[in-house]
Structure formats: structure tokens, C-alpha cells
Design goal:
Number of strands: 11
Number of helices: 8
Radius of gyration: 17 Å
Strand order of the largest sheet: 2-1-10-11-9-3-8-4-5-6-7
Helix content: 25-40%
Largest sheet: 11 strands, mixed
Shape: globular
């Protein structure tokens, strides 16, 4: 049983979790999700799966199920094997109850060459993947993404303008945005002041090594957070923080 330990103490039913992890629609609301070991690692052997626990998978699924779009960096999409969202019967029923489209698209951020036109996140997706890039990206590559079935969104001149990209997604009605990393994308979104909520799962593992932390990139002025909730199940802590803009 998942239990809330802040701001109150209570056992949570599924409806409680859905209310707690709902996005603040209809306004734009961008959430970043990460799972981390207690010593700050977000990967083991380059992937996050080994750090996930049953409790974390419940929260991860809520992020997908209640979102209009899943935002991810191209490197993370390739390393983690993204192939587009495939809601099972439970997720499909949850999305129906919340008035959401049957399948949320994946939006992949890329500066260009890291995302091949035949990447599974494009070719195996059930709904068109949105490829977010900039105007300086090779036009032939952009055309190849389109030919492979992607919806190409150009934001920025020679680098991706993430603020503009997020605003464009929201203007399309994709206001509930679930970002699943990686660390470079998270840092860039913070620099663009585009993040509204940070959901961090602390798994009961120590891994040492040289794994990255949730953010990695250019330094920013420290972003102040307000703790919104803490859940616990079998030693796993699920924290929600709201960012002060």
C-alpha cells in the first residue's frame, strides 16, 4: 500500500493518486520525472530500469497516463528504447475517464544528427512522433523524418528554443507535458524556465560509480522548490516539488 507521509499521513487509493498526480490543465503544466538511487545516480550501466521499483512504476505510469504528450531527449529515447506509447487496457480506461486522447504522442528533442529517421521512436509509434529541432538542422534530415511519419516542429534558429517549443505544444492543446529526461534536456528546460513540477523517486539503492545526476549541463541560478508531497512504499520515496518561477 502506498502511503502519503507529507503533508498528511494516509493510505492512498488509486483515485487519490490520480488526484495527487493530475496536471494543472487547462494551463500549460510541464512535469519532469526521474528515478534516482539514494546517492544520486539516475542510471546503472547507462539505463534507468535497474533503479525502478514497483512503487516508482506506479508513478511513472501515472505521468504517462495523465499526460497529453511525453517529452524526451533524443539520446534518452534511443538508450531507453522508446517506441511510442502503448496504453494497456487499464491505462486506456484511465485516459478515457480523464477525457484524454487514446494515445499520447512522444515529442523528441534533437539538435540534428542524433536521431535517425529509422529510429524506433519514429517508425514504431502508433501516433506520429513530434520531432522538435531547430532551423539549422539539415533540410534533408528534416524531410526524412517527415517521410518516416514524424511531425517535425522547428523551434529556434541554430539551437532548439525550448520555451518556444513548449509554448507551441501547449498551443496545439498538448498542455499536460510529461518530460522523462534525460539530464541534459532537464537542465536546458530549467534554463528556459519551462519546468513547473519535479517528480523524483528515491529508490533504496546505493550504486556509487560515475552515473549522471538528474540534471547535467550549464549551471543556472539555484531554482527554489516547494515540497508538495512525499509518498512511501517499501522503502521507496516519491517526492513532488513545485518550482517557483
Amino acid at each position: 500500500m502506498m502511503r502519503e507521509i507529507f503533508p498528511g499521513t494516509r493510505d492512498l487509493a488509486e483515485a487519490d493518486l490520480e488526484a495527487l498526480y493530475a496536471y494543472r490543465a487547462p494551463e500549460k503544466w510541464l512535469v519532469v520525472n526521474f528515478v534516482s538511487s539514494t546517492d544520486g545516480a539516475v542510471t546503472v550501466d547507462g539505463r534507468s530500469a535497474s533503479l525502478s521499483t514497483p512503487a516508482d512504476r506506479v508513478i511513472y505510469r501515472l505521468g504517462n497516463d495523465l499526460a497529453d504528450v511525453v517529452l524526451v531527449g533524443a539520446g534518452t529515447a534511443l538508450i531507453e528504447g522508446f517506441q511510442g506509447m502503448r496504453p494497456d487496457e487499464h491505462s486506456a480506461e484511465r485516459r478515457r475517464r480523464h477525457g484524454l486522447a487514446p494515445i499520447p504522442p512522444v515529442a523528441v528533442v534533437t539538435g540534428g544528427g542524433s536521431l535517425r529517421p529509422d529510429a524506433p521512436v519514429i517508425t514504431n509509434a502508433l501516433v506520429p512522433t513530434i520531432v522538435i529541432t531547430h532551423a539549422a538542422t539539415d533540410p534533408d534530415l528534416r524531410a526524412a523524418w517527415t517521410a518516416a511519419g514524424a511531425d517535425v516542429l522547428v523551434a529556434g534558429t541554430d539551437t532548439v528554443d525550448l520555451r518556444s517549443a513548449v509554448d507551441t505544444l501547449a498551443a496545439r492543446g498538448l498542455t499536460r507535458i510529461d518530460c522523462e529526461g534525460g539530464p541534459h534536456l532537464f537542465a536546458s528546460l530549467l534554463a528556459a524556465d519551462a519546468v513547473d513540477e519535479f517528480r523524483l523517486t528515491l529508490s533504496p539503492f546505493l550504486v556509487a560509480g560515475r552515473a549522471p545526476r538528474p540534471t547535467f549541463g550549464d549551471a543556472i541560478d539555484p531554482a527554489r522548490l516547494d515540497l508538495a508531497s512525499v509518498l512511501e512504499q517499501d522503502g521507496t520515496l516519491m517526492l513532488r516539488y513545485l518550482l517557483r518561477h
